[in-house]
Amino acid sequence: MVFQARAAAWAGKTDAFTAAEVKKKAGDGILKSWVKALLTGFIFLIALVFSGASYTYYIYRSGPSVKFGSKGRNAMWARHDWVGKSHEYAVYNQLIETAERFKITDIYFHVGPLNAQGEIELEKYPFAAQLVSRIKSRTSRINMHAWIGQIEKAGGGPLNLSDMGIRREIVNTARIFLDLGFDGVHFNIEPIYTGNRDFIDLLKRARRITSKTDKILSVSCEKPEPFAGANVLARAFMKTGGFWKLDYYREIAEIVDQAAVMMYDTAIPYDWIYSSLVSRQTSRLLTVLDSNVLLFMGIPSYENKSKGFHPEAENVESAIYGIQMGLQSIEPSRLDMFGIAVYAGWTTDPDEWRTFEREWLSGSQ
Questions:
Q1: Of 64, 141, 2, 55, whose CA–CA distance to 320 is shortest?
Q2: Helices (H), ranges, 137-196
Q3: Which of 47, 143, 182, 253 is surrounded by the fewest CB atoms within 10 Å?
Q4: Contact by Cβ (8 Å): 222, 194
Q5: What is the pLDDT of residue 10?
């Protein structure tokens, strides 16, 4: 009887162990199924990314089928020295010769950073009137813009665009330079996040005075959002303006005469990826923006390497290559309101100007 009882007890224990093992095996099976599914999905994702990268590289290596050329509308950002110092006539003549040779029709002259009140102190631009006078006495083919900029409070700067009084003062500052004879005003305030209503209000206020005086309103623009959600990611890790959604681009383009896209400082380390990005953004913007706005794609001509800029990847040649690729699907007539903006005049060496001339000014279309 005792033996039979023990045998029955052991049988019960065996049944219990068997049930537990079954449950464990079932759980392991489910876990393995999830791991297998995730691993399979990850492999497919890697394959998709690799395929996309391979195709992008293939398109990059294929090159443009047609080499487009400038229609004669290009721009350049110019250093503060032009309004901060006096220059000999020969220096002004050299600037004019450079502009005419490389078909630079619009120059953004830095006239001084705004202070916290939205003003620029007179001592920051003592030779602005001289600059205007000496350039205009020699040529009427250059549009001279007063480049007004500052770091906005959101980026750690002193300028609070949310204050209506400050926005009004910025417009008053712009009026001062228009009265000095500048052909237009160019705003470069950063960071401006996509959808920022205060910036829209500033542009609309400035538009009223430029319209009345037949002057040009231009603006430096953040890069377009490359994919949905990119702006959120950028703002989570950086104090930059992130990316602008295309709807915001359209809204700004309805207000201004010129939009210069700051297509640099992308942190991309490889030229083929950078060129491919420039290509896509060029074609996207030319497709969605109205032809009434003059669109400039800003390209880098500086070599200050940093975490956010790799000159071996981002340079005059790779940027223009990307622009040429982006123009392949665009109607040639759209190029009447398109050009390249060089950043910056004071960092562009002779070799880079020759590259600009060869790759952009000598196109067949």
A1: 64
A2: 164-179
A3: 47
A4: yes
A5: 40
**Phi, psi values for residue 255, rounded to 5°:** -100, -45
In the three-class reduction of DSSP (H, G, I as helix; E, B as strand; rest coil), residue 297 is classed as strand
Closest CA to 93 of 143, 145, 135: 135
Closest C-alpha among 215, 106, 118, 201 to residue 159? 118
Does the pLDDT value for residue 15 go beyond 60?
Answer: no
Helices 197-213 & 246-253, crossing angle to 10 degrees?
Answer: 20
Distance CA 296, CA 146 (A): 17
Closest to 216 (Cα-Cα) out of 73, 71, 87: 73
Residue 97, amino acid:
E
DSSP state of 218: E
CA 275, distance to chain mean position in Å, is 13
- pLDDT tops 50 at residue 1: no
H-helix segments, the chain: 2-62, 81-84, 89-101, 128-136, 164-179, 197-213, 230-237, 246-253, 271-288, 316-326, 350-356
Let me know: does 330 contact 287? Beta carbons within 8 Å: yes
CA–centroid distance for 322 within its chain: 14
**What is the per-residue pLDDT across 133-153, written as a single tens digit (0 to 9) for each?**
999 999 999 999 999 999 999
For position 238, what pLDDT does the model report?
67
Residue 152 — φ and ψ, nearest 5°?
A: -75, 160
Q: What is the per-residue pLDDT across 179-233, written as a single tens digit (0 to 9) for each? A: 999 999 999 999 999 999 999 999 999 999 999 999 999 999 999 998 877 777 7
Average pLDDT, integer, range 168-184 = 98
**pLDDT band of 3, cuts 50, 70, 90:** very low
